[in-house]
Design a protein that fits this description.
Elements (H helix, E strand, L loop, with lengths): L8 E5 L4 H5 L3 H9 L4 E7 L3 H4 L7 E5 L4 H11 L3 E4 L4 H9 L4 E5 L10 E3 L10 H6 L33 E4 L11 H15 L3 E4 L5 H13 L4 E3 L5 H9 L3 E5 L2 H8 L4 E4 L8 H4 L6 E4 L23 H11 L3
Parallel strand pairs: 1-2, 1-4, 2-3, 4-5, 5-6, 7-8, 7-10, 8-9, 10-11, 11-12
Helix pairs in contact: 4-5, 7-8, 9-10
Length: 331
């Protein structure tokens, strides 16, 4: 296939976590803006696939379940793509795309397996000079697409199930990050909850997964002692969580998937990020029309933001969060 001709089928491979996937979705919008007749597919992990199907610019989702290499090659062949864009930094996808015979294989240029791609992007992301979504959009340059790097991820909330929360107005606190980034401690979350309650008089919903249940229970009990109306959302499927986030008056989250989902669904969202470049708001900040990404106002160590043991997330103040909340919260 000649790269100067318009491809009919484009496959994006992204098999990472939820946040990575949400920041990949703008690629589909950018492709459709230039090539409206192109068929755009995404290969995604099974657990993120329902979320990807909410993106109006995706024509097909290919579910990847980590099965055998031979099965992966078969999956790629069946897509019959003209172009594959390899965003998952794993050798197996580059090699499998080559063996599947996909004509144009776009990938990062500094990996040992880059030999299996024929259109390479030479760019180091570790310097965190731009958001992950912007880095992803730059992968379209071999297709002649010079995309707007501020393009936002879009998810269609009309496809979500009924909200399991009875309240019409509430605030969501997503306190954990699954180890992907540093978090506030319980004292900070309790203080924030108390101030939110005094200011907005809205119930608070704590979200998380089963393994975080003990922390959430302790946190909710402490908040209840302060007279707060607080509830723990039972671990639910991804789309039910997305509905809860989409209808929140305000979502406050550390750097993790639910924050990205809330932002993409248009919910007023505050993100809490450390200063370390690899984890910063500049690199991983939430993308949405009603978003404020916060980080400490001042470095807390002489080597910040290059320290190896990042603790500066604690330097984000409750006042910072409240000021952002007052600007964002839905009436």
């Amino acid at each position: 296939m000649n790269i100067t001709s318009k491809p009919k089928k484009i496959l994006i491979v992204r098999t990472d976590k939820i946040g990575d996937m949400v920041l990949t979705l703008p690629l589909a919008r950018a492709i459709k803006q230039v090539m409206p007749d192109a068929n755009v597919s995404i290969m995604a992990r099974t657990y993120t696939a329902p979320l990807v199907k909410l993106c109006p610019d995706i024509d097909k989702v290919v579910e990847y379940d980590g099965s055998s290499f031979v099965h992966l090659i078969g999956q790629l062949r069946r897509v019959r793509a003209d172009v594959v864009i390899l965003l998952s930094p794993k050798a197996r996808f580059a090699i499998a795309s080559f063996l599947a015979g996909i004509p144009i294989r776009i990938g990062k240029g500094y990996r040992w397996y880059s030999v299996f791609t024929n259109k390479k992007i030479f760019e180091h992301r570790k310097n965190a000079e731009r958001n992950e979504a912007a880095y992803n959009l730059r992968m379209l340059k071999p297709l002649g697409i010079d995309a707007e790097e501020q393009l936002l991820p879009i998810l269609d909330k009309n496809k979500l199930p009924k909200n399991p929360i009875n309240a019409t107005k509430y605030i969501v606190l997503h306190t954990q990050t699954g180890g992907s980034a540093p978090i506030w401690d319980a004292d900070k979350w309790c203080k924030l909850g108390s101030v939110l309650n005094q200011k907005f008089h809205l119930p608070v919903i704590l979200t998380g997964i089963r393994s975080e249940g003990e922390f959430l229970f302790i946190l909710s009990e402490r908040m209840k002692q302060d007279g707060m109306d607080v509830h723990i959302l039972p671990e639910s499927d991804l789309l039910s969580l997305a509905r809860v986030l989409s209808e929140a008056s305000l979502v406050i989250s550390g750097s993790t998937g639910p924050g990205h989902i809330a932002a993409a669904l248009g919910a007023p969202t505050i993100g809490l990020f450390p200063l370390a470049r690899a984890l910063s708001k500049e690199r991983w900040g939430f993308r949405g029309a009603n978003v404020e990404n916060l980080s400490p106002l001042d470095p807390v160590k002489a080597e910040c933001p290059m320290c190896k043991n990042c603790e500066c997330i604690a330097a984000i103040t409750v006042d910072q969060v409240m000021n952002a909340g007052e600007r964002l919260i839905r009436p």
